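To illustrate the input format used throughout this study, we show a single complete record. The first block contains the structure-token representation of the backbone; no residue identities are included at this stage. The design step must infer an amino acid for every position from geometry alone.
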């Protein structure tokens, strides 16, 4: 595959490497899962923070109205 795109070239090289070694593929997949889990955890914490902030905001509005 002849391509000048560095990202595509790296992806092809990685795929060729992982296709040859079952253990390397397993470690790669474990790493990818860990990264997805971490992203999911961060996104969940962000959403929790947004909800908490909204609740505090509404509580402040309610205090000012009373």
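Output of the design step:
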């Amino acid at each position: 595959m002849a391509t000048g795109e560095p990202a595509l070239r790296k992806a092809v090289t990685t795929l060729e490497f992982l296709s040859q070694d079952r253990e390397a593929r397993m470690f790669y997949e474990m790493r990818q899962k860990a990264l997805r889990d971490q992203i999911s955890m961060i996104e969940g914490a962000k959403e929790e923070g947004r909800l908490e902030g909204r609740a505090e905001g509404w509580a402040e509005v309610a205090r000012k109205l009373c």
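Structural context for interpreting the output: The CA atoms of residues 26 and 55 lie 43 Å apart. The chain is about 90% helix and 0% strand.
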